[in-house]
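Record type: monomer structure entry
Structure origin: computed from sequence
Chain ID: A
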Amino acid sequence: MKMLVRAISCAPAFLLCMGGATQENASRISASFSDPSSPGLLHVALVNGSISIKGSESRDVVIGTRAVHLGAPKQDQKGPAVMQELPQQSSIAVVEQSNRMSIAAANPSITTDLEIQVPNRTSVQLSTVNEGDIRVEDFDGELDVGSVNGAITLSHVGGSVLAHTVNRPIVATIWRVSADKPMAFTSLNGLVDVTLPSATKANLKLRTDNGSIYTDFKLGSLTGPSPSAEYAGKDGPLLRMEIHKTAIGTLNGGGPEIEIRTFNGNVYVRKGK
């Protein structure tokens, strides 16, 4: 089954503020997976905008949209009057086939904020580039989250997580960790702050190039930065030393690998309940 839904005017709420010219337009639609009895895959990608995900026990995916356009009044090119630019209606495309659903803005140039209720135990892939953050709360499933210029906040999530951002922080609170799947939380320019259940069994790989690493866990088999050497060279042996800044330790005897890393910023690994 294949479904295409374009949200144009489902119960819109309109707000126009003069001066700062903040304009919003909101609507909601719902969509279903082909086989709601089996876990589905949801892929959401935005060029401009934010994504908020909330887990639910419903079988439907409920999508709320809000288009936001910021701008000052513009001079009409054909006359002397100053005219206010009107908001453009938010429009998204939703395609579902074989229990795989994708959501994207029909016009990437419009900053569109998405608020989506997702059935728990869904595999979710999220990506943004500009003008917004990614937030996930009260969700239990598989998460693959990436952003370029947005922060990532995961609150009370369970399952497995892959999270990466380039220019903002990552803050995650995990209440359940999948026993057989690795996880990773990485940033280039931002702190990474992860809270794990106290009983988590994992092998930790922690690294920052320009910052510090903090934890209130008691780590076993902890190893710190160590040198490695390579011998090469056509004119004889050449010794090259590489300093690895990764701290490696085990939680509760070890388990799947959890990598927590940033280049510029601190790393925090906190003990939850």
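Annotation 1: Residues 143-273 form one domain.
Annotation 2: The longest strand covers residues 134-147.
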